[in-house]
Write a structure and sequence with these properties.
heterodimer; A: alpha+beta; Gyrase A, domain 2; Alpha-Beta Plaits; Elongation Factor Tu (Ef-tu), domain 3; 6-stranded antiparallel beta barrel; 7 helices; B: alpha+beta; OB fold (Dihydrolipoamide Acetyltransferase, E2P); 9 strands
């Protein structure tokens, strides 16, 4: 167990690679109750959210979910989140555990007109992900979950527990995120694992959660995005909607858009299996036997996340590099324990997404 | 408690050493591979390289972490496990057998006597020596 955002979290149950493969092949259950949830409601909720977040909340229908960002005025990222429209004027935001206090202060400061409630402590969250997830959740649910589309949400009961059933996830597989009362979480957890035994459903820890999301190039706050990165260089321009009206960070982000980002978050595949880890320097490639003499490799960026990818069976990484070196196919180096190891910019996701679009 | 074969010698850094005639075979213990989790990369010295007792001779990486490999004994590397670059998971599956790492021709075989016995290593781990 490791401390994570104030919670004791399992890095692994049976083993990271085994859990990873179970999610891609069958199903995995993740207790991600550490995530934060805020509710906001009332006639001022929409305006507050439009001001706070980068995506267009006005485009959300009731029962729809949206990936979005909170940004600082300088375009740096406060947090990434999923935003749920639960009723005409009631919304829920799911935020990163390590950012709950910071985000709570931020939404109150910049969305003061609306009524906010921090329900993080009373809300449990279990993700069920994988090709067998739909059948597994469907068997325990009192409603037809096949009719809940990707990035949509519906209320129901699962395993006898009142649940907000969200067709979302952080693995690239089809599946659900199930929001329940904190006290009901252990009951739902047991019901899912028991009912899923025949499907090969297993509990999955933080380690495989990280390798699964990395293969999909999903950003992790604190690694790939933070207050020093802007959405455009992170490749998150698709959830920034300047046309919706003003929001915190818009002017700064639009300046970056006009000039073009200086650096970009790229996918990197290593030639051998050494792992390019968070914080390792990225360099140009000088494939001469005398590297470091006349033509030293030049620093061009930094690795933000890296691991062995159990499904792609290679060492993969995300890194910020200067835009001139960001094109797919570019040969780069990563400095690993004093040695420049060869790598190459590749298309992402590293592994094909199988979400139900 | 993980498996600790009685015929091997051990380091406090969780390597094992096995005398084979005038050679010493080296790997990491079952306890070490359990702590590391899935091994995904092993970096070994080249044949002919010199290794020094208690000094790093290579690196083992798991999904979670990077660890140095420490030589139990000084000498020259006469063979390395050529299967590990392609199948690093062998270290998890068979740490005392197919997951071996290097074969050393010792420069001072008496160094072996300074290593921990199986019983001493078990006690070391039991006392929290792994952390």
């Amino acid at each position: 167990m490791v401390p994570f955002g104030g919670w004791e979290m399992p890095v692994q149950y049976a083993g990271i690679v085994e859990e990873h493969r179970a999610v891609r092949a069958a199903a995995g259950c993740f207790d991600v109750s550490h995530m934060g949830e805020f509710e906001v409601e009332g006639p001022h909720a929409l305006a507050a959210l439009q001001r706070l977040t980068t995506n267009d909340v006005g485009a959300l229908e009731v029962g729809q979910v949206q990936y979005s960002l909170l940004c600082y005025p300088d375009g740096g990222i406060v947090d990434d989140l999923t935003l749920y429209r639960l009723a005409a004027d009631r919304y829920m935001l799911t935020v990163n555990a390590s950012n709950i206090d910071k985000d709570w202060a931020w939404v109150q400061e910049h969305g003061a007109a609306a009524r906010w409630r921090n329900v993080s402590g009373e809300t449990g969250l279990i993700a069920v992900q994988g090709p067998k997830a739909e059948a597994l959740v469907g068997r325990l649910a009192d409603r037809d979950v096949t009719r809940i589309a990707y990035y949509h949400v519906a209320e129901g009961t699962v395993g006898g527990v009142r649940t907000l059933v969200s067709r979302t996830g952080y693995t690239g597989e089809d599946g659900f995120e199930l929001y329940v009362g904190a006290a009901d979480t252990p009951r739902l957890w047991s019901a899912l694992l028991q009912a899923g035994r025949g499907d090969g459903a297993v509990p999955v820890g933080l380690g495989a959660r990280d390798t699964l999301r990395l293969e999909m190039r999903y950003a992790l706050y604190g690694n790939d995005i933070d207050q020093t990165t802007n959405p455009l260089e992170a490749g998150l321009g698709w959830i920034v909607k300047p046309g919706k009206g003003d929001f915190v960070g818009r002017d700064a982000i639009e300046k970056v858009r006009a000039a073009g980002p200086r650096r970009k978050l790229i996918g990197l595949e290593m030639a051998d299996r050494s792992v390019a880890r968070h914080g390792y320097p990225v360099t140009t490639r000088v494939d001469s036997p005398n590297v470091g003499r006349e033509s030293a490799p030049a620093p061009i960026g930094i690795v933000t996340s890296g691991s062995y990818g159990p499904s792609v069976e290679r060492s993969i990484a995300l890194a910020y590099v200067t835009s001139a070196h960001a094109a797919v196919g570019t040969e780069l180096g990563v400095e690993i324990r004093g040695q420049i190891k060869p790598g190459r910019v590749v298309k992402t996701p590293f592994h094909p997404s199988r979400v139900k679009k | 408690m993980a498996n600790v074969p009685s015929d091997l010698k051990y380091t406090r850094e969780h390597e094992w050493a096995k005398r084979e005639g005038d050679r010493v075979r080296v790997g990491i213990t079952a306890f070490a591979q359990e702590q590391l989790g899935d091994v995904v990369f092993v970096e070994l010295p080249k044949v002919g390289a010199k290794v020094t007792a208690h000094q790093a001779f290579g690196v083992v990486e798991s999904v979670k972490a990077v660890s140095d490999l420490f030589a139990p004994i000084s000498g020259e590397v006469v063979e390395t496990n050529s299967e590990l670059p392609q199948k690093p998971e062998t270290v998890n599956k068979d740490p005392y057998g197919k997951g071996w790492m290097i074969l050393v021709k010792p420069s001072n075989a008496a160094e072996l006597d300074q290593l921990l016995s199986a019983k001493q290593y078990e006690e070391f781990v039991a006392q929290g020596g792994g952390h």
